[in-house]
Amino acid sequence: MMLRRGFILFLPRLVGLLVVACCSMSIVYMLACTPKGDSQQLALPRVHSPTGKEGYEAILQEREEQHRNYIISLKKQIAQLKAELQGRTEQLKNMQNQYPDSLDIRLDHSKPEKAQANLLAFLRSQVDKAEVHSGVKLSTEYAAVPFESFTLQKVYQLETGLTRHPEEKPVRKDKRDELIEVIELAVGSLNKPDGVSKAKPHVYTASDFVEGIYRTEKNKGTLYELTFKGDAKHQFKKIVLFRPFGPVMKVKNENLNMADTLINVIVPLAKRASKFRQFMQNFREMGIQQDGRIHLTVVYFGKEQMNEVKSILENTSKSANFKNFTFIQLNEEFSRGKGLDVGARFWKGNNVVLFFCDVDIYFTAEFLNSCRLNTQPGKKVFYPVLFSQYNPSIIYGDHDSIPSLEQQLIIKKETGFWRDFGFGMTCQYRSDFINIGGFDLDIKGWGGEDVHLYRKYLHSNLMVIRTPVRGLFHLWHEKQCLDELTPEQYKMCMQSKAMNEASHGQLGMLIFKQEIETHLHRQKLSSKKT
């Protein structure tokens, strides 16, 4: 009873509270929906008022005018920003032109005046840090960053993987655009008037481009060295560019005259007269007839087949009217390092480019030019990565279908591989070879001496140019690993022998030949049953 009375007495109060709450909500709603004043929002006229239509039109026109003015204001701001950006770009270009090309002068980092100056100083410091002007000391043979080479049509690359090829067109758009930009920039730089010469300048085009090499140091940038045809035969122009993870910067523009640059090809040899005959055919065509600035030094070990080798050399000399050769005979056990060292030190003329070669190597006249262009006394030595040929009898099947040697010299995954583990073929000036200490003459037999010399150069301040080249081939021959070799040498010899035979896919076909034939036989049986 008491609860009922309390509820009855409380009910009128509850109703009153609800009425007050509803009134309050109505007032708030009216205040929120009331149109704002002229200073905040234009009030819309009432629909039934006599000026309703004219009022709407006036408001629409006013809104349209406001939007038009806003668009005009945005366009002005965009134009101002473009003008300012253009001005900043011109300032940066002017500052770049104020500094010499040699980059021997560093910018003063302690007094930066503008953001552009700081940026330019940073980019220049990247060039200074990179291996552009001189080499840096490296700890092992694996620490050197190799170059990759390219022409107008092809890129020659070491890191092929399973999908890339040792020679291919730059399929990726970013790589293609990068190389086109670099070549165009180099052509523009060559055609820029120097203000000194009064003679009519030669107008360079992309067709004058001979070859280029490039490599990327991950924490610095990309270095490009591009070679163009010069004004006369045997003359070239070299442009060095560097992209320090920013704009491409011209580093160097120099004239190179290779007309008088002689190459001394040194070949150590023992027996193998038939291979030497094949080598001399290549040497005569490419070295004597096409290049003409070449000397041959043959260091022969022992006396077996020596007369036959000397006869081949003398016949070539007579038929080609070639007198620039030296024959040195050593009565001792064959040592490649000893032969090359003796041949290099035997030279008594002016400083000369030495090309350490083997009898099973095929080279082109273009490679001889690359040998000259990538060596510089006291600064550069050249370690080309040659293309090693697979066993032709495996590649082409039956012996009757094996093409001629010249037709076999194509750069494809199926025909060979970049011999990036070999350091035996190298070009350097004789002065650098002597100053570095030459070969380790304690190494006997096959292998080891080339890596030892390579490490010496890496540990020096000379720049080592390591890049695949399209004109240097290692011809396949059956490799014999002798029992007299040390365990390490024997292991290296067997690894080299395995890699020389065929590609992974071709070796796999040989290994699984029986399974493949069994599968084909089953397929024939099943087709007969059906």
TrEMBL record:
This is Hexosyltransferase. PANTHER family: CHONDROITIN SULFATE N-ACETYLGALACTOSAMINYLTRANSFERASE 1, CHONDROITIN SYNTHASE. It catalyses: 3-O-(beta-D-GlcA-(1->3)-beta-D-Gal-(1->3)-beta-D-Gal-(1->4)-beta-D-Xyl)-L-seryl-[protein] + UDP-N-acetyl-alpha-D-galactosamine = 3-O-(beta-D-GalNAc-(1->4)-beta-D-GlcA-(1->3)-beta-D-Gal-(1->3)-beta-D-Gal-(1->4)-beta-D-Xyl)-L-seryl-[protein] + UDP + H(+). Residues 64-98 form a coiled coil. It is found in: Golgi apparatus, Golgi stack membrane. GO terms for biological process: chondroitin sulfate proteoglycan biosynthetic process. The chain crosses the membrane at residues 7-32. Keywords: Coiled coil, Glycoprotein, Golgi apparatus, Membrane, Metal-binding, Signal-anchor, Transferase, Transmembrane, Transmembrane helix. Belongs to the chondroitin N-acetylgalactosaminyltransferase family. Its EC number is 2.4.1.-. One of its GO terms (molecular function) is metal ion binding. Its main location: Golgi. InterPro entries: Chond_GalNAc, CS_glycosyltransferase, Nucleotide-diphossugar_trans. It is an enzyme of class 2 (transferase). It comes from Chaetorhynchus papuensis. The keyword ATP-binding does not apply. It comes from the Eukaryota. It holds the Pfam family CHGN. GO terms for cellular component: Golgi cisterna membrane. It is a single-pass type II membrane protein.
